[in-house]
Design brief:
Largest sheet: 2 strands, antiparallel
Radius of gyration: 20 Å
Structural class: mainly alpha
Order of helices and strands: HEEHHHEEHEEH
Bound molecules: zinc ion
Length: 188
């Protein structure tokens, strides 16, 4: 069986989505300075280019939209807000150059970084990788993971943690239902 490895673009989108960790209650993009630091660490901007509040808002809106799109259950509002961000990130197509898509060079550095994220997203969608990159079905987790299952059927980031937690909840719910059912039987 050949393992399907995520492309660099898929890894970038996953890293971006997972800057928010619901389980740990951490967010690497909390402030504009945090966000600038993350963009530098990812090599998306060359040096700490200041993000203003508007850039920061755009970055968070883009992340919220991408996280929703990966979650399957989508909020039309967040997708629309994410799309509004994307409209402000022009991309240049070139016949001769590699890569064929790149951020418009006229964009300021923070916007170029966001346009690079947008290009990575378009790569995921056009290659079908978006089907393998998923957000954990456990809403308290929401971790974005690469699904290596053959039919792309995995729902939880880890079966041992989130999968079992979901099963335990389902079991408890069944027990409760059974309990109330037998209680009502007894009452009759
Ligand atoms: Zn999870």
């Amino acid at each position: 069986m050949s393992m399907i490895e995520p492309s660099a673009q898929a890894e970038l989108v996953a890293a971006f989505a997972n800057t928010l960790d619901l389980d740990d209650e951490t967010d690497f993009l909390t402030t504009p300075a945090d966000a600038a630091g993350w963009l530098v660490a990812q090599g998306l901007v060359e040096r700490p280019a200041g993000l203003d509040d508007r850039d920061h808002r755009m970055l968070l809106d883009l992340r919220a939209g991408i996280r929703d799109a990966l979650g399957g259950v989508t909020s039309a509002d967040r997708l629309a807000v994410g799309d509004a961000v994307l409209r402000e990130l022009p991309v240049l197509v070139s016949l001769g150059a590699t890569p064929a898509l790149r951020p418009a060079p006229t964009l300021p550095a923070p916007r170029r970084a966001m346009a690079t994220l947008a290009i990575a997203w378009s790569h995921l969608v056009s290659t079908g990788e978006a089907d393998r990159l998923k957000r954990c079905a456990d809403d308290t987790c929401g971790w974005v993971f690469w699904d290596v299952s053959r039919n792309h059927s995995r729902r939880w980031c880890t079966m041992s943690v989130c999968g079992n937690r979901a099963k335990a909840r389902a079991y408890a719910a069944r027990q409760r239902a059974r309990g109330s059912a037998s209680a009502s039987t007894t009452n009759c």
